[in-house]
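Progress narrative, work stream C.
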Amino acid sequence: MNAADTAFICLCAGLVFLMTPALALFYGGLVRARNILSTSMHSYASLGIISVLWAILGYSLAFGPDHGGLLGDLSYCFLQGVDSAPAPAAANLPHTVFMAFQCMFAALTVALISGSYAERIRFPAMLLFSALWLILVYCPMAHWVWGGGWMGKMGALDFAGGAVVHMSSGAAALACAQVLGPRCNLGLPVKPNNLPMTLLGGGLLWFGWFGFNAGSALAAGTLAGHAFVTTHMATASGILGWMLVEWRRTGKPTTLGAVSGALAGLVAITPAAGFVQILPAMVIGFLGGMLCYGGVLLKERFGYDDALDAVGIHGLGGTWGALATGLFACAAVNGVDGLFYGNPHQAWVQIISIVATWGYCYAMTRSILMAMKAVMQLRVPQDAEFSGLDLSEHNERGYSL
């Protein structure tokens, strides 16, 4: 084991942890004032329930010894055998540190989905859905890609979570928005209650993302430094890409557009950060900003109420990033070439992984929700929706003006 690597990953785990409270700020500022606390609570609740379930069962299913390329076994339930010895997946790190780093990814992914059902889901339903989704969707996906499963063995490239985190949460968000249905007053304009709070949350997400991507190198070395730089350059380019199309379409650039473009760039570069060179990273981020702007507009055409654009940004951005990895991957960075460097097979592998991720995550999420709907109420009553979930679900108010 390496002390410098251990300290680095501990720091990165802290940065990834910060992303979930940052998401609470980002999402909380975008909803109406009567739902700011309930929306923020979704992120904080995920930190609680997902962390506990990760220790009890989730980590073992995701990173336990492989069974048929589909799932880990139960060797690490209740963190048995997860101690200061080297981690099987990263021999330079203590097992506890690797487990904790991966725990932060799981909690954030579940919190991302909450953007699709904000302002209308019952809190008990949210808790049960989060628990079931972790076990039935996230853990298999993490095992397939990072835990020795079939997708990783096939050669799919996902440096920090394009499929495991963003495509999976985007597919789940689409299923949630469709099953729960639109908010009662979808035809009226929904204005953010606190854009400065959203901008602060977006900035903290950008900051935390350095731990998300650089830490995925699992060592304090040149690859981590490279991922840090590609992450920043792609994010900056994402702002410009989103701002360009928004400015042309509406006549004015907005602060919400700028922070959304940054998030789009972050999502797009996540699977590619440790596989592509810096200039292609900027292209990925720039196009990611443009594509995600278009993706957000799709909900108007197809009629699903993705309240905070989890599908358009995380789903579409993660898909573009995974595909772009197969195009721009360069062996000089991390030993693998993509289509533009003479290896068309890698692009085909990435396409297979994209289709499998969307298909499995969407179908399983929809199945979970339909099963829950048969035994419990998913949505708050209409009068509670109009009065606000802060009061009806938590007996609190975010503002006392």
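Work stream C, second folded protein:
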Amino acid sequence: MEEFHKVRRLPPYVFEQVNRLKASARARGADIIDLGMGNPDLPTPKAIVDKLCDVVRDPRTHRYSSSRGIPGLRRAQAAYYARRFGVKLDPERQVIATLGSKEGFANMAQAITAPGDVVLCPDPTYPIHSFGFIMSGGVIRSIPAEPDHNFIPVLERAVRHSIPKPLALILNYPSNPTACLATLDFYKDVVAFARKHDIIILSDLAYSEIYFDTAPPPSVLQVPGAMDVAVEFTSMSKTFSMPGWRMGFAVGNERLIAALSRVKSYLDYGAFTPIQVAATAALNSDGSEIEEVRSVYHRRRDVLVDAFGRAGWHVPPPPATMFAWAPIPEPFRHLGSLEFSKLLVEKADVAVAPGVGFGEHGDDYVRIALVENEHRIRQAARNIKRFLTTAAEATTNVVPFAASR
């Protein structure tokens, strides 16, 4: 039977190939150190779990909830933006709760995209940024992920040479997977560009609180006039170690939030009410949970950079996020990221995410997630050192064909 139209538009999921190898190796008894999926291993803070347990005992909370998010949760998100970014939001018209930022992006794409609409999207980037629009009938025009001096000229060329004119621009800083950061001055230039050309900005700020040797990452909504063109998505998954709770937000432009709200009203009844109440308590807390999560990832980052460096693999220290974006060691770069990732599972019992899964311009890299403790990260480095040493020795001991005759 022929595949359905939307399924045909989706390429094979490259991460699944690594996942199959990982599962096969574990079935044979291998101890795979999984640094692939960005699935936080840290427990959700006790106070948040306790609040959930308290509320879930009330049978009134077991009924359908609100697709937009309960009022107290939307007020808590608005208060967070006021404290953290100095941005004033109307909880009724400029804030909506989503089932994680991934769902929010996909549903926003459904809400605003007509067949053939052009969307400017970084490459490499988190897959839903592009495929949410592809599934909605849009067309992706790739732009660089680095927020440098070439960014605006690239956008200007895209506007000149795209038919129809681009509908939207995707931003993601701190970036998944590259971990690069944007400045407020950069956002000012992008907002000016978007207002000039009447282009929507969709900003993914899921890693706003996971930063290390840098100032807190800004929000695009801090720029005067951004509210006219921008919506920003955040998530509680990484900030509060709540990935399975599926709780995120979209905030910003009223018209766009209304469109997202209308689509969501047909698709879901919102997250389970006790989850929303617990999320409200988390957002209204003193922030100590966030500081602890950040410090754990900071320590893991330093251990990974040091241990992998000693093993012979230089990994640039990421300034933010829970990921390192690591160039494939030179002797293996010709393999590409998927084959190199498969090789690491087979020969070093270490799983990473192939960079090509984030876009064709990521194929010289792999993404390493800080989702194992420091002991396991050091163990991964030891495994990799043995693999690199063995590979180097095998290369050195190869006898040239001509000399062997």
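Residues 47-283 form a domain with the Aspartate Aminotransferase; domain 2 fold (CATH 3.40.640.10). No further action is required on this item.
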